[in-house]
Amino acid sequence: MIVFIVFPVIWGIIISFTDMSLVGPRAMKLHFIGITNYIKLLTDPDFYNSIRVSFLFTVFSALIGQAILGLILALLLRRKDVKGGGIVALSVFIAWVIPEVVAGYAWGAYASKEGLFNVLLLPFGFEPINWLFRRPLETVIIANIWRGTAFSMILFSAALEGIPKFIYEAAEIDGASGWQKFRYVTLPLISYAILIDFILITIWTFSVFTMVFVMTGGGPAGATELWTIFAYRRGLMPPYEISYATAGVNIMFIIVLVLIIIYLRLISKFKV
Fold first, then answer.
1. CA angle, 99 as apex, 96 and 105 as ends, to 5°?
2. How many whole angstroms separate alpha carbon 217 and alpha carbon 233?
């Protein structure tokens, strides 16, 4: 913990107050520059764009896409009258275990002008377009939903299995409809699992880098430049301003930490 977590965090905080570069004289001899990097970040439109893109990407692909679709799949798989549930579950799980690089290149091919998207939409009268150029953020959001839904599905399936059947039987005796059983029985009893899911997929989605970088490289014109890609470009590409990139990472860490604290406060209120 000290070597691989505590020390890197402390070192990252330290170098964010210096002019450290990955190469050149400043890589060996650091100069303390105070909060210059943070002031520069707060006036950098590219940094604000990366925060905006990261929030949109996380909200729509994780908190809305993965969580809702995962819950729907978990509810469907629990029904005895649904056929082919095992195949659906296996397909969703395979999408989760595929390496990000492979998933990125596959979705890059799907979204090209000659790709699968346009082949499927052509019978409906849609003109072929390059989705990564015309709708880049929407495309990477859909790709991340496809790849990450399995975790939410598994978590919600486990939570649903923990609900005693006699509660549903009692609700049926009282004349509850399917929606009422979901609203007043299922949803309250899995609220803790939902918040846990939100915490984990928020952390993971805010940390996404490889798949989006392979698909778009953060483009076009910064439309898909997540904060991870912003930090990579500033720190590991010319002019190799590693201290500036680290300052950006520290700010994003604080933002994510605040979100997690909010989730934990909600857990303390809704835990059943």
1. 110
2. 10
What's the confidence (pLDDT) of residue 198?
Answer: 93
Per-residue pLDDT tens for 72-81? 999 998 887 7
126 C-beta neighbours (distance < 10 Å), count: 11
Q: Any alpha helices (H) in the chain, and if so which ranges?
A: 7-15, 36-42, 45-58, 67-78, 85-97, 100-110, 116-121, 131-134, 136-161, 165-173, 178-181, 187-189, 191-206, 210-216, 227-236, 242-270
Cis peptide before 220 (omega within 30 of 0): yes
Burial per residue of 209-232, b for 16 or more beta-carbon CB atoms within 10 angstroms, e otherwise: eebbbbbbebeeebbbbbbbbbbb
- Quick check: 243 and 36 in contact, CB under 8 A? no
In contact, 204 and 91? CB cutoff 8 Å = no
